[in-house]
Amino acid sequence: MLELARGLSTRALRALAELEMRTIAADGGRLKLEWGVLNARSGRDIEDLLWWDGDRLLGFLGLYAFGPATVELAGMVDPAARGRGVATALLDAALPICRDRGYRKALLVSPGGSTAGRSLALARGADLDHSEHALVLLGAPTDGPTAGVLLRTATRADATEVARLLTAAFGWTPSDVVDRLASDSERTLLIELAGAAVGTVRLTREQETAGVYGFAVDPAWQGRGIGRDALRRVCTRLRDEGARRICLEVAVDNERALGLYTSVGFAQVSTEDYYALPQG
Question: Which residue range is the domain that position 30 belongs to?
Answer without folding.
Answer: 2-133
